[in-house]
Structures are given as C-alpha cells and as structure tokens.
Specification:
two-stranded parallel ribbon, alpha/beta, 16% strand, Rossmann fold, 48% helix
Length: 137
C-alpha cells in the first residue's frame, strides 16, 4: 500500500479475496526516507520530522483500508514501516517473516511512470518474493 490509485485497487481486490476465502489480510505501508531528498521534502525540516509526517500519512492510508475491510468482516493486521534499505526487500522480508501466503500489490506506485508496464517495486517483489504475487492494475 502506498496511497496510489493502483495500490487502492489492489487493496480493494485483496479485501474481496480475503472475504471470499475467509482469510485474514495484512496491510503494509513502507515509508522510504530516500524520498526525503529524492522528492524535494528537504524543506520540511529534519529527517525525523519527515519520517513522522510520512508515517502519519501512511497510517491514515492504512486505516482507510482497515475500515473498508472491517466493514466487510475481514480480519486485518496493519503495519507501517520506515525502511532504510530497499522497499522491495522490506516487503519481501516482511512477507517471509510473517509467513504470508500471497502478496497483492498495485502495478505502479506513487512514483511510477505511466509508460512503464510494471513499476520497479512490483517488479522487484515479483522477482524476489518467496510466495505468489498478484499484481493488480
């Protein structure tokens, strides 16, 4: 989950699939401090302020998905992580550690270029995940 249209579509799909399969759902949002410099956030203050602001925004997105899932009777676990390595590896390692059976991701995220067929995070997760990955447009 990253708040992009594709990740929202993926979360809606995941909620429906979890409901149909009577499965639980984990919603994960990875905040990358690399975005601090890459996307011009340096004007908001220190790295800690950036992380705090982004984590609050991320939690808001996760809470929206949690609410939708709970309305449909789906059990939800949520997590917002600050990562200092690649977002791909954070997702893959989280999935392994928590014994995730299926990863559902959007095809492109907030920073994706529309001309790309598959975003770099989705592509990396497909490549390195220990479990099946469903990519949703």
């Amino acid at each position: 989950m990253d708040g992009s249209d594709d990740s929202i579509n993926a979360s809606n799909y995941a909620i429906d699939m979890a409901k149909e399969l009577e499965a639980s759902l984990t919603v994960l949002f990875v905040v990358s401090p690399a975005n601090y410099i890459d996307f011009g956030y340096a004007n908001i203050g220190t790295m800690n302020e950036f992380e705090s602001t982004k984590k609050k925004l991320a939690q808001n997105e996760v809470d929206k998905v949690n609410k939708k899932a709970m309305e449909k009777g789906v059990t939800v676990n949520t997590d917002v992580l600050i990562n200092y390595k690649s977002v791909v590896m954070e997702i893959v390692e989280y999935a392994e550690k928590h014994k995730v059976d299926l990863i559902i991701t959007g095809s492109r995220g907030m920073t994706g270029f529309r001309k790309m067929l598959l975003g770099s995070v989705a592509s990396g997760v497909v490549t390195y995940a220990h479990c099946p990955v469903l990519v949703v447009k």
